[in-house]
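$ run holo --ligand "magnesium ion" --emit tokens
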Amino acid sequence: MPPILELTRVTKRFPADKGEITVLNDVSLSVQPGEAVCLVGESGCGKTTTGKLVAGLHAPSEGHIRYQGKDIWQMNKDEFAQYRREVQFIHQDPYASLNPAHTIGRMLSFPLKYHGITKDEANTQARVRELLKLVDLTPVDDFVHKFPHQLSGGQRQRASIARSLTLSPKVIVADESVSMVDVSIRLSLLGILSRLKQELGMTVLFITHDLAIANYFARDGRTVVMYLGRVVELARTPDIMLHPQHPYAQALLGAVPEADPQLTRNKVRVPLRSLDVPSLRNLPPGCAFHPRCPVYAQGVCETDVPQLTPMPDGRIIACHVAVKNIMSE
Ligand SMILES: Nc1ncnc2c1ncn2[C@@H]1O[C@H](COP(=O)(O)OP(=O)(O)OP(=O)(O)O)[C@@H](O)[C@H]1O
Ligand SMILES: [Mg+2]
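-- output --
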């Protein structure tokens, strides 16, 4: 099946004090319709930026982003508008994305009417009720007339998902906030997204810094591990969780708390050479992970940037040492 989304050698630079800063470098990824893909990595590695590029909220500095085979930045106005309806980004912070002056009912009915999705008032109200039920904001009558400040954090998050569903998207990019500490909110969000994926066949790109969450959400899908703006390993989720091959992916898994036995069973404890994360403004030459890497090979890692390389088991890795080891097995 052709991919629904395809990023090809995408680089993103932002203007900075003096010149520019490269926050994404040579990122390639293709996503199949109905697939769940998780993006994981430390804070600042470029997860949200990738999500925003996928949703057309930023343009790439280099490379291509294709939706259903078409470069989104080559689309005509109508095609781009349709793509923007079909690929929805759910913000990290539902406070920032809900208009405090509008009731939940108005917030959901406006796009339905504006885009001519529903034909008359009765039709609109019926759809609003359906959307509230889909995200478990029930009994519906309790919620249609409420304002965002009258909802709990979890309810607001669900209202925000309901709004992103008004245009019947095919793809959802859900960016989980690091500040969302409340476990019950995180789990309810995950439950709803899993259901939408199953019931409506949606494609979901889920962004999280938490490997246990990625393991839960994308267990049938794939996980992408990012480090300082690059993809370092991309594989089926169980392959990453149980047998990570990139030393950074191994270190990330090694840091999962003991409380998650499924993830810690095969845990490899390899001490990093340094705990300092280099700055994007001053990246080390060669592999950006080499100053911290426990398996660093002198003469290669500090000079050559490792390219993403497909492995026999289907995973893709950017690491001189891991690729050599796997190929010589
Ligand atoms: N509009 C912008 N202008 C300049 N720099 C930006 C902009 N947006 C993001 N950045 C920088 O790009 C880098 C990647 O940011 P991004 O938000 O994608 O990281 P992230 O992986 O989502 O991190 P977190 O887990 O903390 O949400 C950071 O160094 C950030 O400061
Ligand atoms: Mg982010």
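-- notes --
The first strand starts at residue 5 and ends at 15.
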